[in-house]
Structures are given as C-alpha cells and as structure tokens.
Protein: Histidine triad nucleotide-binding protein
Amino acid sequence: MTASIFSRIVARELPADIVLENDRFIAFRDIAPKAPVHILVVPKTEEYANVTELATGDADLLAELVTTAQAVADEHMDGQYRLVFNTGERAGQTVFHVHAHVLGGGLEEGSLA
Ligand code: 5GP
Structure:
C-alpha cells in the first residue's frame, strides 16, 4: 500500500510547517489555507480513512484528536476555531487518511466555509 501524503509528512519525505507532534498525532499548516489560520490535525495511523471509521474503530483516539485540535487552537487561534471533517469525494475529501481541519484566526461571522 502506498503511504498517504500525510504519512509521508510524518516520515519527513515531504516538507510541512509542523506546529505539534507527539507519538499519536502530527499537526501542520494546510498548504492551501481556507482561513487566516488553517491547521490540519492528523492521527499518525493511516488505518482510518475518515472520521466515521475513526469513531467506530478507536473512539478514544477521536476524543484525543479533538483535544489536540483545542490545544492547537489555544496556541494559534485564541482557543476559538471551527473543526471540519470532509467525508467523501463529493464533500471535498481529497486525502483518505483521517484529518481534522482546524480553522480560525478571524472567520467571517455566520459563514460555514
Ligand atoms: P481534504 O480535502 O481531504 O479534507 O483535505 C486535505 C487538505 O490537505 C487540503 O486542505 C489540502 O490543501 C491539504 N494538503 C494536500 N496536500 C498537502 C501537502 O502536501 N501539505 C500540506 N501542508 N497540506 C496539504
């Protein structure tokens, strides 16, 4: 199986602006930001393609993903953020290695995108 783009970032085969890393997660700035601050939080395992697979396969890891997103937001977005999981190609998912988009730093009021 070919490693996902995000596993290649974990392996340092691709460059990224990494803001947090521990044994279970890596977080780095999105290459094409959709908000003033846009960080991806990614479990290092690529076993789960999307958030539903993660929820059913390892609920504790999903909970930890959320608290990791909060930690990233506390450091980079005054603790206020939008958390997005695209699920499926027609919803805009392009990387099938589960990841949370953490968006903040001044979002338009009422906007969902
Ligand atoms: P998705 O569309 O699957 O929900 O999100 C994938 C995200 O990964 C996109 O926002 C895209 O800009 C970002 N992305 C894709 N390739 C790279 C890369 O090589 N480096 C970084 N930092 N982000 C990437």
